[in-house]
Amino acid sequence: MDFGTVNSRLFEGDYQSVGAFVADCRLIVENCRSYYGDKPDGAPFVEQAGRLHETMAQQMGALVRYDQSPAAAQAKITPVAPIRIPRPTVPFMTSMMTEMRASKFTDKYTKLTESSCVHFEKPVNLAFFPDYLQVVEAPMDLETVDRKIAGGMYATPEDFEYDVTLIFRNCERYNVPKRNDHIVALAKHCSKVFRKLFSKRMNALMEGRIAESEGAKTSSSSTERKDSTSSGKRSPAFPTGDGAVTKPSKKAKLDSSGSSKASSKSSGRNSATPGAAGEGGAGRRRRRRRKG
Q1: β-bridge partners, 239
Q2: pLDDT in tens, the chain (292 residues)
Q3: What is the dihedral of CA 152, 153, 156, 159, to 10 degrees?
Q4: Do the beta carbons of residue 180 and residue 159 sit within 8 Å?
Q5: Are 47 and 74 in contact (CB under 8 A)?
Q6: In terms of pTM, does the model score above 0.85?
Q7: Contacts for 200-207: CB closer than 8 Å, 24+ residues apart
Q8: Where are the alpha helices (DSSP H) in 38-156?
């Protein structure tokens, strides 16, 4: 187990529980201790594994505690829209290949600096290494990766990552037993450079997809609020000659309100006038009777 595999499983959604993720992370340390524990030159690796274990223990402990909290239980039942990772573009992959090829490696013993990827450009020459296919099941090199990029053969970023890291895993598998330390150091250096580049690009890609999904949710909610507001405050509509319906202008609203007020006032005066006239006529008739 290695962190590259853990990272790939995270992106692919293979982990169904926090416990499975924690178990894989701990397995990396356990494998290192098991392999280098009995070797005379394995003390530095065991020491590094111990420091890694101490660092991970704090983070893993916090993660496990959160997984057992009520907040995590609520988060597990809350529906989350899936984030779709698009097909990797040619610039997305070629930019990483270019930066990786530009990296340099300095040997800690000879202090010589060289291009780190020059030994991995072409397929291994089987005439010089006839037993290579007996050790390595799936050979891979940078030129083959370039051809697959140009041919659009990578459907996911993980497929591209797998092929590139396969180059350096093959190198270590073949050369570690033969104690070809220099070429193994080059492979480890290139693998480290590529993993940093890939992680940086993928984080930017994921953040962009999350921002797009959140932006879409925000725009849809604002549109719904606008629709509800407009539906709650509708102005009267007037039919036109061609059957269409249009909203009245401000002038039409004022005219209609003014005419309605005027009509109400005039109707009030008309209704009051007959009553007053009738009341006055009846008073005059009563006065005439008294005189008579």
Answers
A1: 245
A2: 777 778 777 767 778 888 888 888 888 888 888 888 878 877 888 888 888 888 888 888 888 888 888 888 887 777 766 667 778 899 999 999 999 999 999 988 888 899 999 999 999 999 999 999 999 999 999 999 999 999 999 998 989 999 999 999 999 999 999 889 999 999 999 999 999 999 888 888 777 665 555 555 555 555 555 555 554 444 444 444 444 444 444 444 444 444 444 444 444 444 334 444 444 444 444 444 444 4
A3: -140
A4: no
A5: no
A6: no
A7: 201/92, 201/95, 201/96, 201/157, 202/11, 202/157, 205/85, 205/92, 205/157, 206/83, 206/85
A8: 43-67, 70-77, 90-101, 132-135, 142-150
Q: How far apart are CA 107 and CA 116, in angstroms?
A: 10
For residue 257 the two structure tokens come to 């309100």
Given the structure tokens 């060289």, which residue do they identify?
114
Catalogue the E-assigned strands of 110-266: 113-115, 238-239, 245-246
